[in-house]
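Quick one - inputs below.
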Amino acid sequence: MIRIRTLALVTITLIFVASQGTVANPGGQGNGNRDYVCGGSCHGDPGLNAPSSATISVSSGNTAYTGTAYQFDTIIEIDTISHSRLLGVFLLSSTNGNGDNPEDHGWNIIQDPSGTTVNYVEVTVPNDGVVRLSWVLNAPEETGSEELIVAIHHGAGYEGLAYLGVSEPHIIEINQVPENLPGFALDWSAPNYRVTGDISPVNIQTQNATNISVEWKLEGESLSHPASVEANGDDDWLVYLPATMGDTRIVYRVTTSNGDFDIIQPWLTMGTIPPEFDGSLMGARAQGFAGAFMIIALMVSLQGLLQPSRSKHELDQTEDVEAAEETPVESVVEEPTVDEDAAYRARLQKYDEHPGLLWDPMEEEWVKDPHYGGDE
Amino acid sequence: MFSTTLHHLVVGLTTGIATLACLCAIAAWVSNYFVGAKNARAHLDIASYIAAIAALPLLPIAVLSGTMAMSDPASDAMSYNKFLFAGLTTGFLISMVIGRWRFGPGVWNDSRLSILQAISAIGALASITVLGSIGAKMTLGESTLDILPFWPKFDDSVVINEWLSVVLLILGLAVMAVAFMLGPKIEDIPE
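Output:
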C-alpha cells in the first residue's frame, strides 16, 4: 500500500515537473503587434528565462525625415537555437512592457520582414545562424531623437527555458522634411502578397511626387529590372510587376521625383500566396465517403481473392461417398460405339483352316466368329 | 461552444479506441510469428474486434461535432484534409471489422488474410495519426509529429469539383456493392 502511495506521489510530482518544463511556447506565438516581454506569455518569468548569447547589430542610418520612409536593418547572429530553429524578433521603441511598439511612438510600419505591418515576427534561423531582417517605417511627424530597439527570444536545445536578448538602442535623429520632398503617402501601406500568377498592377500612392520610377528583382537576386509605371491620378500610380509563382518573393524599390528631389525609397517586399481555396463542405463530405467506399471495396475484393482454397482433408471422403450415392450406377464396361464396332469387325481375318475363329492382328489373338454356324 | 467541447471529448474517445483496435490487430498479426501465442492472439483479436466496432459509431459523431465547432468547415486545405482522412480511417476500420466478421477469429491463422487485416489496421492507424496531427496543427499550431524529419504539407489538399466528388461517391458505392455481391463466397476459417 505504501509503495502504491509513493508511486502515485512520484508520478504526480513528475507530472508537475514536466508541466513546468513546457510552459514556454516552443511552437511560437505567431507574428503580431507585441510589447516587450512577449505580450503576457511566460517568457518574462525570471525563473524561466536566461540571457541569449546571440549578437544583435543594426546597420541603418541615424537620420530620417519626418513622415518619410526609413529602412531599419538588423543582423542577428545566433549560435544556439532550439530544435524548431524558431526565433522571435521584436522591433521596439522602449522596453517598458507596455507602449513599446514603434507605432506608439509616432512611427508607422509600412512593411515588416514577413511582408505585413507588425513589430514582432518569427523567423526560422538558417543553418549559418545569421538572420537579416528589415522593417520599412514612416518616420514620426515630430522632429527630435527617437530610439529603435531589437529584442529577441528563442529556445535552445530541448530545454524549456526562454532565452532573451536586447540590442543597444539605435538612435535616429528625425529632421524636418525639406519642403516639397517627394515620398510615399502617409496613409499608404505596401501590399503584402499577390495571388500566384496575378499580373494586375500594384497601386502606389505618393505625396509631392510628379514622377516615379520602379525597379524590381526577385528576393536573393542582385540585378534589378525597371518596371512599367502608369499614372492613375495625382500622386497615384499603377506599377506593373511580373507575376510570381509558388513561394517566390519579389522586392521592388520606388524612386519618387518632383524635379527638385529624387528620393530613392527603401526596398519593399511582396510575397506570393496560392489562389483562394475552392473546396466546399459538400465536396469534402462526398470525397471522404467516396474514399471510404473505395477502400472497403478494395479490401473486400482482396479478402475474397486471398481467402484459402476450400481443400478437404485427405482422409475425409464424405463428399465423395455422398456424391456417389446420389448418382445412378453406370456400367463399368464400356460399350463400343457403332463406329468402333464396325472398325473392329473389319480388321478381323478369317482363315479356312480355323473355322469358327477370327484373327485379330492388332491384339494378336483369336476371337470367336459370331456368324459361324453351328453345323460347319 | 458546446460543439467544441463535445468534439474534444468525442475525438479523445474515438482516437483512443480506434488506436487500441489497430494496435491490438497489429499485435495479433505479429503473434503469428511467436510459438505459444495462441491465447494472447485470441485476447488481442477480441479486443481489436470490439474496439473497432466501438470506434465506428464514434467517428461520424466526431466529424459532425468538428463540423459544427468550425465557423467555416472545409473552407481551407487543413479542414478539407480532415474530411478526406476521416473517410480513409472509416474505410480501413470498416474493412478490418468486415474481415474479422466474415472469416471469424480464424482469420489470423491464414497468412495472407492476417496480413490483409494488419494492412487495414496500419492504414487506419496512420490515418488517425494524421487526423490528430492536423487537428493539433489547427488548434495548437504544432503537433507531436513535428519531430519527424519529414512531414507532408497539409496546408495543401486534393480538391475535386463538387459534382465530380458526388459522382466519385456513387461510383464508390457501386464498386463496393459489386465487391460484396459478385465476389467469391466467404466461409469461416476454422481456428
